[in-house]
Amino acid sequence: MPGLYRDEGVVLRAIKLGEADRIVTIFTQGHGKIRAVAKGIRKTTSKFGARLEPTTRVALQCYKGRELDIVTQAETLESNRALREEYALLTRTIPMLEAVDQVAQEREPNPALYRMLTGALRALVTTRNPLVTPAFFWKLLSLEGFHPMLDVCARCGEAPDDIAVVGVAADCDLVAFDLDEGGTICRACARGGGRPVTPDGLALLRRVLGGGLNGALAETPGPAAHEVEHLGIRALEHHVERRMRSTALL
């Protein structure tokens, strides 16, 4: 039938519509972000049941409409119930879903982002490590083209060995992060602003973006994880040019 299509996706959010319906926002693998009406989903006799709850990965069939599509079938691929039922995990999941909702474009497929989101949800269920969420923020920014400079001063371009101070470790010379410059800045340049960053925080951020995330997730989070999270939130908000409401839960 013309207008029908099949895909799989992760439910990002759902809002009430009328007395029994909902509008669900789904980030799909092949059609990008879509908004669709799930008719009668709030009735006890609904054929969709709990299949279209946020965090759920579903295989769905939709009818393409002018503004909103209509969900005609939905089958659960991954329920991710723990992400909704455990508050500690829920507060870590919702910010990731909001971030994707803000970055993803309607009707524009982004397979890399889709794989990143589904992988992050699985990692959060498996490891229950709070570092998953800030790591997702930074990898999302990197995918969007905002890969921070972490080995040289983003303002003057000098490497730590060139700006080292006698008696001070080289990494300590990169003492702040400037969102406008897009990376770390040295002690001299930090006099003009920037958010402070510790050597441990910088080292963890390098691991997250440099292929060492799995090893970092196997460790117990320390103060550096909180620092990476706080900086990641600010960097993400700077990129999307708006405040992230759900990050208040973190």
Describe the structure concisely for a colleague:
The protein has 250 residues and is of the alpha+beta class. The chain has helices at residues 81-85, 87-103, 111-127, 132-143, 160-163, 199-209, 213-217, 223-240; strands spanning 4-17, 21-28, 32-38, 57-63, 69-78, 174-178, 183-186, 195-196. The strands form two sheets. A five-stranded mixed barrel has the order 1-2-3-5-4.
Question: How would you sum up this structure, described in words?
Answer:
- The chain starts with a strand and ends in a 10-residue tail after the last helix.
- The protein has a domain at 129-250.
- The protein is elongated, with a radius of gyration of 21 Å.
- It is built from eight helices and eight strands.
- The strands form two sheets. It has a five-stranded mixed β-barrel with strand order 1-2-3-5-4.
- The chain is an alpha+beta fold and 250 residues long.
Strand order across the biggest sheet? 1-2-3-5-4
How many β-strands, per DSSP? 8
Helix coverage percent of residues? 25-40%
Main beta sheet strand tally, sense and closure: 5 strands, mixed, barrel
Over all CA atoms, what is the radius of gyration? 21 Å
Low-pLDDT ranges: 163-172
First-residue to last-residue Cα separation = 45 Å
**Strand/helix succession:** EEEEEHHHHHEEEHHH
* Category from helices, strands and their pairing: alpha+beta
